[in-house]
Amino acid sequence: MTNKGQKVAFHTYMNERRLSVIVHSLISAWMLAFLFEGQIFYSLANEYDYAPNVIVFCGLAACFAGLLLCGLIIKTKKAAKQLLLGTCLLSIAMSAIFFFPPSILWLLGIVIGSFFAGACVAAWAFYLKSSTPKNERIKTVADMLILSNILMILLNMAAILVSGRLGLAVSMIMLICAFFFALRLPTDHEAILPAYIGRKESYVSITRLLVFLCLFIVIITINSGLMYQVVNPAFAHLEWLTSWYWALPYIMAIFIMRNLSRRINRTYILYAAIAMIGFSFIGFMSLGRGAATYIVVNTLMLGACGVYDLFWWSVLGEMLELNKNPAKILGIGLSANVLGVLLGGLIGSAITSPNTYNPNPTLLAMIVVCITLVLLPPLHKHLSLLLKDHAFLSEFSELSAKEQEGKVDRVTRFGNLSEREGQVASRLLQGKTYKTIAGELYISENTVKYYVKNIYSKFGIQSRAELINIILKDENTTIDK
Amino acid sequence: MFSEIQPIRGGVCLKTIRKRQLIYAGLASLSVLIGILLLVSGGVWSDIHGRILLSSVLIVGLVPMALMAYETRKYRDARLITDNPIMHYKTAVISNISVEAPMQQQTKHDEIIVSYFGILLNDKTIVFNQKGIRLKAVQIGEGFISLTYGTPTWAQIIRLLCPVIDPDAMDKISEKFRYETGINPSLISMGIDEKRF
Q1: By three-state DSSP, how is residue A280 classified?
Q2: pLDDT truncated to tens, each residue of chain A (481 aa)?
């Protein structure tokens, strides 16, 4: 490729990345400030003395459905762009309903808007995948989260300090801007980086990895949902402060994480975030209800949420590589996030409800948070192992059949494996499940498990990832020699 | 005589272990049931005899539970052996010789299955290639098969006396051993010459 060609490709790549971040941030800001228990919505509901509980629950459920179903409906980048454009127009129309007094149309507006907004967020995966290399996606996601939260703060301030209608009008302007930016988004492969051309999709199963990631996301976001129900109402009197400070620690945490060197071990930061959530609840229980307490509690809690959110977003971003339809992966991952918020909200409502007798709602909330925090480290450890396993498997699966065979032969000789163990090891390294291996070798699944145990014990290892690591190390040693 | 080398389903050995496992399970369930009945009927906590009775039932119930756990484990090992047979024959005499203390022990058995994962002698299991125990060597002679297994710190030899194996069956068995375990059996002919397969 000539220098000129490279320059054009670089600019196209930059434009697509920037454009997609701007479009998604504008839509997300509207969603955060209005659709999902946002300040604009609450401000409008207060104006009419409207009880928002049912509508909020229906909205979250519709968003959950939209996220899950998007991957089944949207299968190309062109369809993703059409969905983005259509959602912008539909959302503008739905938002206009809220200039009028409450009616059934409010419920319809929130449900339809949430469904398409959810689908729209999942569809962004096509642009995230094509515009950013795998290892850079954490930065693109961070940019999107930072920008959408800054815009959300502006909308919240407009709604709280001036009026809900002004906030709604500004959010609609943002949607119009999103529509015009979305028109410029590319739909063909011309914007795809040369490195992506000819790259084969990994066929390694990601179900287990996705299940664990979803579990991880649900547990983290239960805390956020719970906190929203328990902590926020306690500081309702600090309206001015909460309007702008609410998301600031979150933005700062994401900014710091975005710019961290890749060499820094992020596991310690995740554990620090667990401690931050714990301390924030202790602070909430032991300190007063003044501005200083709010700053301490909110900084610790939202800072931790920022760390965790960016962590799972980055894992999801990397996982987009593993499926032909990235909207499916992102949709499933984000639906776990919505589910967590929903569950956290329900637990929070149950704890703080005046109809139920709870001697100390804060203590109960603290117990729930502690349980989730205890679950997080082992879950994170297992998730990291699976990710490592998957990364090694993907690397191995990208080798040619001949290279794979050669490596397996070397390992078989090195580990003094029998012919049968070699057959099992070879299939294991290809990422096949025990069931598939059993079917191919005409043995029971239980037998495969024992063969695998034996293979691992011959190498003194515990997992498939370690086995692949041995192969790759063996290769490096050979090259060094 | 030797049967075809393929998974053996529902053999006599497995049935025996299964039957014993069910008996222990029944006894354990019975003791749990009696315990629950004693608790439900009340008066157990206030009456010293009731408390003693409940404790005794629970303690007695632990024995079949432990035996059931043992039989379950044995059944799992036996199942693994019958699923992956290398040799299967009906009658043999066993000589068990320890490497450290060469004391000879002879037992009669009706059904023997030799597998990559161990040996099933009626309802008795000897496991190797699992739990850190490895099969180290195999010798096949006229009328016997000898297997050496153990850990790096100890070793055990088991000699299975069996009907004379014809050359074709011998080839198949040797190949199966090599394929499954990676061990080339030493073929001993009338104790005069020895060749490695």
Answers
A1: helix
A2: 445 555 555 555 557 888 899 999 999 999 988 887 788 888 888 888 887 778 888 888 899 999 989 888 888 888 999 999 999 999 999 999 998 888 888 888 899 999 999 999 999 999 988 888 877 888 899 999 999 999 999 998 888 888 888 999 999 999 999 999 998 888 865 444 444 444 444 445 677 778 888 888 888 888 777 777 777 778 878 877 887 888 899 999 999 988 887 667 667 787 788 788 878 877 887 777 788 888 998 899 889 888 888 888 888 887 887 777 889 889 999 999 888 888 887 877 777 666 655 556 666 667 777 777 777 777 777 777 777 666 666 666 667 777 777 777 777 777 778 888 888 888 887 777 788 888 888 888 888 888 888 888 888 887 777 777 777 665 555 444 4
Do A359 and A434 lie in one domain? The reply is no
Q: Which two tokens stand for residue A304?
A: 């931790």
Q: Are residues A322 and A194 part of one domain?
A: no
Give the distance from residue B62's alpha carbon to the nearest chain A alpha carbon, in angstroms. Answer: 29
What residues make up the domain containing A407? 399-480
Chain B (34-93) residues lying within 8 Å, Cβ to Cβ, of chain A? 76, 79-80, 83-84
Report ipTM (2 d.p.): 0.76
Residues B186 and B148: their CA atoms lie apart, in Å, by 12
Cβ atoms A395, A472 nearer than 8 A: yes
Q: What is the CATH number of the domain that holds A350?
A: 1.20.1250
Whether residue A255 sits in one domain with residue A177: no
List CB contacts (< 8 A) between A450 and chain B: 80, 117, 129-130
> Does some domain include residue A204?
no
Please name the member of A417, A421, A453 whose beta carbon is closest to the beta carbon of B130.
A453
Question: B195: Cβ–Cβ under 8 A, 6 or more apart, which residues?
Answer: B186, B187, B189
**C-alpha angle B37/B38/B43, rounded to 5°?**
135
Place of tokens 């290639």: B129
The C-alpha atoms of residue B86 and residue B77 are separated, in whole angstroms, by: 15
CA distances in angstroms from B78 to A427, A438, B13, B161, listed in the order given: 26, 19, 8, 20
The top-level CATH class assigned to B85-196 is mainly beta
Alpha carbon distance, N-terminus to C-terminus of chain B: 23
In chain A, residues with a C-beta closer than 8 Å to the C-beta of B183 are 418
